[in-house]
Queue: 4 jobs
Job 1
Amino acid sequence: MRPALGAFFTACLVVLCARSTAAHDPITTKVTFAREIRAILSTRCTPCHAPGGSAPMALTTYEEVRPWARAIKEQVLTRRMPKWHAARGFGAFKNDPTLTPIEMALIASWVDGGLPRNAPGAAADTPPAASARPKIGLPVLTVPPGASAASAPARRRWISAWSFDPGDPLITSATISSDAGVIGTWVAGDPVVSLPAGSGMRVSGRLHLDVQRREAADFERPFTPKPSVLSLWPLPVPPARSAWTERVVCGASRTGLPAELIAVRPIMPDGGSARIWLERLGAPRTVIGWFREIESRYARAYWLARPADLPVEARLQSDGRCELEITLINARR
């Protein structure tokens, strides 16, 4: 019995080893996780896909990434991730987090080529040390765990930037305002949001913050939320140029002061889409963007790569019904 039993276990071990070997795709690419893929994920994905981050799964190590590799390929090739609702090729934006065509091709080559961790003969794959996030802003408002809104007194001041540190990974976006008007937005994965150099926005009265959340995925690990913190970057002196926000209806003539348009946030129902362009007397149309399948949980402002002149009587036109929250800048009022 024992020899037969030993032969049986030996045969099982051979079969299991064969299955394990067959489960690994043959390596047919020179693209590796250690050399190319980790760098792409670090730039485009891990601002959200990190332990305790706002996305359902972490993508910081090879072991974390491998089970999701084919899903990652599908999501980036169809441009469903990172979350970004402006169509590529229609306008240009400073805060565009999407992958370049070369980055997408590298991920596809890596996945289709067998998911190699490192090149043969290369040094052991050692993840780089995480860099500490700079803490420069002044914490001004704390959101209790589970709350969807918060407010706090804000003394009159000028600010040049803001950031939001979510204590809850289910928080997807935040809208920040004061009694002086809307300040701006934060979306999961955003770094510090900064106004153009030499400009600032006035804050006065009370600060207000509204947050949006997503549903937890079935496979997410339990997480105990912590307080979330809003920070502002105060200016020591009034700036040379002031920034502010206005809410406009698409197609309506603007009657405010001449200014430069630096950001736009489409406001429409979930799933809505619209092409936005700028019409000015004596000037050709300027494409602002094509915003598709808007999600209110990701209330994002799209910051123009280059400011656009917005004189009196200019129109922000659209091929659909919508409103816009626009951020403007000009000489200090």
Job 2
Amino acid sequence: MSVKIQEKPNQKSLQPKESLRTIRYGKEVFSFERLDRKSDRPKIRITVHRDCRVTVHAPDDVDEEEVLNAVKKRTRWIYKRIHEFKAQREFITPRKYISGESHYYLGKQYMLKVEMAGESQPGVKLLRGKFEVGVHQNSPEQVKAVLNQWYTSRAKYIFEKQLTELLKQTLWVAHRPVIKILPMKTQWGNCSNKGNLTLNPALVKAPRECIDYVILHELCHIAEHNHSKRFYLLLSQVMPNWKSVKEKLDAMADYLIHVD
């Protein structure tokens, strides 16, 4: 199971060629995709993604009319969410990786200062509220590569450190999970069947409480393998304010991962 940024549009549809439907709300017409959903969960789940896709998860035994009626009942909410995401993205510009630009680390913004490294190895120093990035060639591609390498290194250190602290309260975890760092566009993290964690290095740009939320979420999956009531009860026991922390992380997603 995983903490998702936005779900991947690669799940098997009930009707692969005809899975995309459209529905009208006033003068607006939007499409949605029906995807399969295990029958042991609530019947129909509607999701509006940050890229403005709309997906409807429903078990195979739910007919088309019931799915359509469920979407119709929530068209106003869907319309509102789509326009909220569109409005948010209007203010987000791609990174240029030049001096004066700001970048996040542990929830705080730092100004980027690009310098020539000379005979030294390319690298990053965090000094006096600035990212000082030393490169051999002052190009956006090299600055980005050096900075991302630093983020990955820091992510491994911070995630291991936070995991050590969090294991003190997750007593159901018998063995320390192995942490793998992997850049992902749609997930903050996931937990394998063996109980090992894969975490997104971009998560190190978020506040520590957001990092803790993602790690705790995945550790809870070691005990509860789906998002059942027992899963959320367990998560609430170890992080009572997880909902507000999740909202904070979701609100930062575009700035932390979708701007490159």
Job 3
Amino acid sequence: MPRWERGPAVFPIKDNIPTDRFPAVTLALIVVNVVVFFFWQQPSGFSGVDEAKVVEYGAIPYELTHPGEDCAIAGSALACGDVPTDDAPAWMTVLTSMFMHGGILHLAGNMLFLWIFGNNVEDSMGHVKFVVFYLAGGVAALAGQVAFDPDAAIPTIGASGAVAAVLGGYILLHPRARVLTLIFIVFFVTVIEIPAVIMLGLWFLQQAFFAARDLSDPLGGGTGVAYWAHVGGFVFGLVAIKLFATRRREPEPRHPAH
């Protein structure tokens, strides 16, 4: 079973930060992720994916920290070491893993957050820099996961490490932004406006808490979630955003004058 880089469990609808540029890269990244999932991974149902492709193109920490050694499916588990395989080289999986997902809901959650927050981050730095920022964030996220679980024989897949970098950049760019959010409380459904710094800040604290717990339980309490990837991506966004962003926009007035 792969380890997912799972996105936040809330549902933003829109923020109040206007943009000047059309978010071409954000949209292109969403299209690539969707195409990879539906036409290359070819899922069956909401959570079924081709395990062979996940093992070949997902990032396995053991392979990255043991150059020349590989992991292959052996029964219901992965066997790692000097095993015969013609899988993709480990370095390639650093890139391919961030465009793969473990299910439709996994994909939908990541793409929702990328659309809501990615357009503003892209607007702050331009298209080319945003590509570099996003991919570097994904690499940093994977590095965070590998650093704290270097011998794991579990494929890590998902865009949420790179998306976490976007969230880390956004929270510094737009600390006064507000996000219209869909909230589910048991059977009660409502829409409220939440300050982005609270929403994203609480999300990061949650990821950090579960990541710290994983130090004594590397499998994430059985959830199979790559919490250290989320932490690594978010921290990268916090640290790197000022190197990439050249401008920021103010929130739109909540009660514009007529």
Job 4
Amino acid sequence: MNPVRSLLAALAILACARQPVQALDRPDVTFKVFQFPPDRIPRIDGDPSDWAMVPDDYAVGSDQLIDDSGEHGRPDPKEFSLRVKVGWVKGMNRLYFLYEADKASWDFAQPGLHNDTFEVVVDGDASGGPLIDKGHAEFWNGGHVGKDAAAPDDRISVDEAHWAIHGVQAQNYHIFTPAEGKDWCMAWGAPTWIKELPYANSATRYTFRPGEPGHLVLEFWITPFDYAGPEGPQRSVESVLRENKIIGLSWAVIDYGDASARTSHHFWNLSRHHTMYGDASELCAFRLMPLDPRFRKPIEAQWSWSVVDMDRRLVAFKDLSAGEVTSWKWDFGDGSTSTERNPVHQYAKPGNLVVILEVSGPAGSSRRSKVWDVQLR
């Protein structure tokens, strides 16, 4: 292999394998991501009614936006206001967004980047660090914008740097508000496929024309990746979303003001740093919240299993039941039982098993059987 490409590959792997740096911005606040019940996943159609169940304290409004340049201050509610809610569904590695905004003059007539924009940056494992090529001195020989500058390696070209790291371990979406006659967003980086189904989807509702005031509703979901390579999804690694996990997330509003303007008029951020667009350590902390109590059953049996040693037919069972549970009864499907919460069982012979867990507590009892899920050779 070409030595430069070998170096790029090694550095890209190291960049994506970093341990969390715990350097997220705004340590005084942790924003919340609402967990939708699996039977009430929001439909991506531009109708916000699916989000009515999400409490108001999940909404992030214009009052949270910051202008770190000091040039513009906070948004004038008479000119621009927004509310953003973020959701997730347990068992699905997707982040759902509802963006609602009112603006005195919307600018979206041109086919390029000059378009009112909602820019979202996500780091699904909160590992932090630069996510654009210019942030990696070891990749880029034209300068350095990160915090800890180092001597750039002039053997690596700007193009090679782009394809090696830009958008790989954290992703940046320039979402056009609205997108008319163009893709719903620009995935800023090498893995442009992340904006397409089955990794993302969007819908927008509006009635205004360029230069007019009006209300915009944008619904979309995206898939965060711990690794998203330019070669396509075949080697990608989705960020695993689980309850109470902290992810890195932030957004910016790029407001072009008057429709005839040629340069951006405002740039507001949820982070205190507009450079969060290229540095995941400057994103904000968002917590994936548990299911709201109103959607939970008082008690519900659930469990998983994994093979510890197939040759010995040794299987570990894990209780995942919801509610207050005080007793467990396992039927392993071979005549053996256990009252442990998380037992390990050795089977004497192969087969397809019907395994049953019964749990009980102050709220009653519940049973969960899995038919032939446990398969041993």
